[in-house]
């Protein structure tokens, strides 16, 4: 008889089910009653799973839901086993061989299951197999398969279980958490007792090493950071599998059977045990809700479902933070708690292993390198096991500054942290109060940590994991574990800030001198390196507030500057850098850098060469720390161009290279690269490009363009294309040479759309002899270069056929693909349209922003062409799900677009491209469409959002 917990009893009426099955099977053979039996069990399971979902919504307990679902599975297995043994294959006087124990293993063995979990079963047999046991096992398995369950199973004797578990760590782990479900209990008891005696005893270190290595490999596959914005709830760092690993090791080393035993043994305190329970319950709630929401065994908490899970869990929006962002912040805080518990547990485990070491080894360790020795700089700390540890348990209470000094000494001496020190630091966070925050010594030590020439990112991360960083700087504490609900940022805000410091430290060390020569040189020239470190640390510290985070961040910088010992002038520069940290990226990526007014306006904002240097370095680090693949050579070239165009204006006309000198240098550089060309041919080519081309395109691209144009000239072709794959940046670059025409860019965009290619960037140039030279970057689809090249050539072939009139763009194909970008569905990005006649002397600058989708650039460029507008240059940039496109326009008479009616038509057509046509029926004729309806007001423009 199995005891039923009260909270499980209302899930299913087992007595009623048994009675129903008796009625179904009575007096009938298996072939006759099987359909009705499976139908009844399926009906019960469907109702019980639905009921489990209702109870999850009612009580919010994820662990209870997981246990209910495991209990439901127990009932199904037992009912099938009872029918098999008691009715179909009944043996009144069974022999010793006609016995079987049905055992749950894996997650099912732990007594927890998600709605989509697999069912892992082990059928334990006595010393030999018989036809009877095989038929019983088959009956149970086929019954479960008929119910639509995914079943993992093994049938083994006790001897086989022991032998295999000795050589296979996966099987050993499965038997470690095996749970008896039905059958012969003596067989199960024999298995567990022999397992303890013959497998576990004396092999703890082997098991621990294997499980920790397995964990590290899993983290490597899933992403080493626990702050990835689309985490894997089960396998990711800080997820359920990490908690499982802790308990596996605890079961193996300490032979515990429940989590409560860990507190009894002193491995966890009661508070830490409570933290374990809360983390486990929360993660199970997320996982179960995710399975219910998706209708499948989905473990990745993707953008598509984050908001739905947030609503299911009851999160609401607060000023500055949406419901989904509050939920994900809680998720990452729980993941951090799991990391803390892992460190605490590993510390206890290490002490246990030292206790169990042979006496001679302990003696040798006590006199050898692991002996505690004093740290010369402070009597409050010692070096133990080559790690920094506390001298006694009153270290922090005696002098709270030691909470900062701990990290300073670790950095200064290149020491890892002893778990005892980190554990006490976490328990002493209440000592980090206003008095400590204003302590000059504590603030001096912090700035030295932040600006260390060793490994500031690593020490700051330890400081953050311990909770000290967020307590010492409360504004930083507000962004700990805060995610931004968009596809652009790969990490939480605090993780992004720490990675920025790491990027800056690497630049200062010269690690990236080949890829980032300008930033590396400028970093060495800065008059105040501490200022750039603090500015980078603070630049996003005001995220999650109702107001612009750049402006709010500048206020925080003005408050913190004096606290950290900066002068009034330094503090003002610090605040300026934080307030304007997005400007350089925005101008470089979305403005025509050959336009003198663009440079003049930017120079007027920056005002000094030193600010320009710091802003460039800050911008590079900010972009590099967003996530893998965000930084690329194109962005580097644009920032370089903006820097070199602005520097002479701020230096009073004196600079390493003037505008004219840089044009000549760029031409000379290409000339040197084309040394094999005849001199006359090379000279003619140098006159085929305007100044913007020379300043915005890097040398490898210029060389490739030159060869493309030369080959087209020799073959007397006006149309030519080229393809280059960039695995490093996860993009493929298409280059198109064609006679210049207002619709060239639109044709290219349309062909890419039909081919299913997503445009992520574009450079548009016109040669002096009337050719368009457009370079388009599309998202890479295939891992292999050969496959990707074939795909890219299909796209360029279509572009050539359309441009030469051999083919037209199929509108149906464009419309079908433009219905929506799957990954963008969860996001709501308002459409913004801004028409600016003041930012350029010659052109009207049209800036549009909104939700990205396939075919968007085609619709935008086609709309502008339909309005008889000429696109002089286009600047295409995507930031995750958000696209920001800037077009420099003129009318066909080469004048700025000033007519109110034309501007209204532009706004209307742009809004339609982003948001679709108005709800009311619109006239089919394009001209009539422009003449009808009221003009929607342009939405407010936040330029800073363009660079986020």
TrEMBL record:
| Residue ranges, compositional bias (Basic and acidic residues) | 917-948
Region (Disordered) spans which residues? 909-948
InterPro entries named among the record's database cross-references: ACT-like_dom_sf, ACT_dom, HD/PDEase_dom, HD_domain, NT_sf, PII_UdlTrfase/GS_AdlTrfase, Polymerase_NTP_transf_dom, UTase/UR
For this UniProt record, the keywords arranged alphabetically read as follows: Hydrolase, Magnesium, Multifunctional enzyme, Nucleotidyltransferase, Repeat, Transferase
Record carries keyword Magnesium: yes
What's the domain remark here? Answer: Has four distinct domains: an N-terminal nucleotidyltransferase (NT) domain responsible for UTase activity, a central HD domain that encodes UR activity, and two C-terminal ACT domains that seem to have a role in glutamine sensing.
Q: Which NCBIfam families match?
A: PRK05092.1 (NF003467), UTase_glnD (TIGR01693)
Q: What is this protein called?
A: Bifunctional uridylyltransferase/uridylyl-removing enzyme
Which organism does this record belong to? Answer: Pseudoxanthobacter soli DSM 19599
Q: Which gene encodes it?
A: glnD
